[in-house]
Amino acid sequence: MTITRRGRLTITITVAAIVVVAVAWLVGTNTSTSQQGAAPPPTPTASTIRASPSPLPTEPTPTPTQPPEPTPIPTEGSGTLSSVPGTDEADGSGDTLRYQVEVEDGLPVEPAEFASAVHETLTDDRGWQSVEDVAFERTTTDTEFSVILASPDTTDEMCEPLDTGGELSCRVGEHVVLNAKRWAEGVSHFDGRLGMYRQYLVNHEVGHALGHDHVDCPAPGEPAPVMMQQTKSIGDCEPNAWPTVSAY
Fold it and tell me: How confident is the model over 172-186, as pLDDT tens digits?
């Protein structure tokens, strides 16, 4: 069979077309296979988008404040007393009771602060002025009784013939003697309420000067009467410093 030039050209074009189609198919297959076998791109996470916020600063844990240690009171004092200068006027409507405040020389106590605490207690609305028909006035002359802060040894001497044993306070005659050890330390069954105990101590001993005797706890859970010997024990009662709450 004779193939003409035109026929050869037709065959050449046909073969070239077949080759192009074949190459295109191979390229497409390889591309598809490559795309199917490739791992997908990683999905962005929150950590790649923004940094984690820094933790908020924490406050330091506060250290509990311990109550101050009581000022040590010497067992033996100087044995001499000094009247606290100054006056505090009576503010009640009853009969005026004039008293002075004395502090044993050398005690680690500020006399003016002690005198102020005594007068504030005696003129408090919860105190004896609201129970008795009296009004307390602090002065240094023409007094009817003295409130004295003394060391344990001096207290024992001034309280004779009563036995205070270096621990208790007393009233003898015109002297209301408060033991400085008790004033500084209080007693354990007042559960750290030193201010309350001091108010009780003043009201209890001045209560004797007003003519009142000791009483007992009236019933469990009741406020202890001011005239109960709360320095020794409160029994089944609750601590109490004020005559208007429970006196005698």
Answer: 999 999 999 999 999
